[in-house]
Amino acid sequence: MAVSDLGTRVDPGSFRDPGNRVLHRRGEVLRGLDERSARDWRALAASDFFRDLLAAGKVCGTEELVPTPVDVPWAAVLRHERIPFVSHPYEWSYGMLREAALLHLEILRSALAAGFTTKDGSAYNLQWRGTAPVFIDVGSFEPARDGEPWAGYRQFCQTLLYPLLLQAHLGLDFQPWLRARIDGIEADQMRRLFSGVRRLRAGVPTHVHLHGAMQARHAGTSTSEVRAQLRAAGYSRELVLATVRGLERLVRRLDHRPGESHWSDYQRTCAYSVHDRRAKESLVDRAAAEATPGLALDLGANDGRYARIVARHAEYVVAVEQDPAVVDALYRALRTEGERRILPLVMDLADPSPGGGWRGVERAGFADRARGDLVLALALVHHLAIGRNVPLAEVLDQLAGLTAPGGTLVVEFVHAEDPMARRLLANRPDGLFPDYRREAFERLLTAHGRTVRRVELPSGTRTLYQVVVGG
User: Fold this and answer.
1) What number is the average pLDDT over the span 95-118?
2) What whole-number distance in Å separates Cα of residue 260 and Cα of residue 10?
């Protein structure tokens, strides 16, 4: 991570394309372009298709800074809109990954028709405004050259298509696969998974087996030689467009609806009474109205009931839930509602997303991205402390660390005699959780901030705390 004398920080995740780098300066997101990339950008900016994508919000807002800032050593500098919260593909649900793939292909199809293409096809080229995907890698566009294939096809398969095939055809959650490798799933891995009759599933013969065989065949051949061979064989832009249209049809066919899970029916099966729920909603609404947060985090969001309440007062809410099926249902519901201030993410808070990629900083970990002005931890602490054996002190350290200094934490403590806590403790050895007591919890909470409100829920076995962290 480089920092100039004048305070311009180079984004550690943007080094793979030497022609342009993403920069951060005084709250702005900039992109530096070399001479060639600057020419490509100006041609792109003058095109009708790109202006249409910008107007539709499908590409992040972008403008060139004129004159070029003297303190940034690039031929041209662009300024981008700031995405409310940066997430990674292994934090998305199936429906989110599918919509991101479709937007990527739509943009590529529009670009090809106008004489442009994209250098890569990575899922990391996309982010979210709530439930709406947006393409952010403006530096990826370049003029298309006749006789050359789409350079991003392999990346698209590895980070978008193959994860979708895994879940649609085999019922495997794709998130662990993408989290394990920043470059995605290799064709050779997919070929072993899709053998026998599985090799006939939609999209597998062409994009897994044929693609893998072509990669093996040309393993010792340079990229320039492969391109020359394709041009000699009559490969054309029309064939690239046909491939893209075929991929779009395939991805649309791969719509996958996950089945029921333990957490998908949690609101009905949990121990809350109507009176408890109303008391919680009242406190959450009051705390959000007082905090008026820029960024709020709902940790353990389930069906998004409380995230929606917070969204009435917050600029943006990140709703985190560990069950991919629950997050997918929430995403689809929010998308139907047209909600653009809530971003649902898949994440196990006992194993949150770490830093990844080159030197562990190319993709920032969740704790490095998330600082909420308001943080909700409702019906969460007992699952971490009892269900996952995380000491109470560690749980509160994490919650306080995710809350901005002076921000508000709303946390629920489920007493040991609560039915849900008793269920979790039932199969635990005696004495394993001697510190799981309200008195110990309150003592630890005091070390992190000032409790401004405490509410006993009508059931008598749960307590809510509104805390100003660091206050």
Assistant:
1) 97
2) 44
